[in-house]
Design a protein that fits this description.
By secondary structure, the protein is α/β, with parallel strands linked by helices. It contains eight helices and ten strands. Strands 1, 2, 3, 4, 5, 6, 7, 8, 9 and 10 form a ten-stranded mixed β-sheet that branches. Helix 2 links the parallel strand 2 and strand 3.
Amino acid sequence: MTKNLIICCAGDDSNNLLDQWSSHGENCAWDLFIIYYGDNPYVEDKYKSISKYFAKCKGYKYELAVKMLLPDFINNKERYLQYKYIWFPDSDLEISSASTCRLFELAEERGAEIFSPSIGNKLFPERFDPAKTWASWSTLLTKTDAKYRRISHPESMMPGFSAWAWENIFIRSLFMFPLYRVGWGLESVWSALSSSFHLGKKIPNYVFDDVYVLHLKPVGEGSTHIHEIGRHEFGIYRNLYYPIETIVFEEFNY
């Protein structure tokens, strides 16, 4: 049985990342669950051929999570709880198979409940314009002198969860806020839930500087409609809780 699961909502232009995930070593295996929202029959067939689980539905990432992952978890809980870790990244990220393996290894080494890789665009100024913003929160940019940092919560772009945290934090957050579509501010719900389970103790949530992704689209240059929805969601839910940027509690260096 494979240890880990990657879930990705993918359209017709997500081939670069999914090609990397479709082949991996026997010593670091993961299963792939693709939720396809595109319209190209060729791309659909390709995604079906490389994924263990496949679904087709229109919507934005967290809208699809509510439509597809929430009811599927209710009806097929053991499908998810058989895995040690579940990673839910966006499709506009670049990461090698070796780095994906390392991400899961570090999560297991640290006993992480919620985690993510760091964002490494600033390491490649010749490829990614330093004048542009590649991460919503600067605290999640790769620190070259750090191995990992203990944090309050990752960004909604690429959160990973232990099986326990998937059920008790991620799925619970979807129950709490079923009208979310793009997920702006949902990270703070994860942080609040995580804190509630670890009162007086250290929260085992991490960003791993040892592993980075490259964000292929600058922040703010995606769909204007997505940003309109995100700002609307933020405006509604900020009255119920206060969304905050990632807080770094501890840094672990080499």
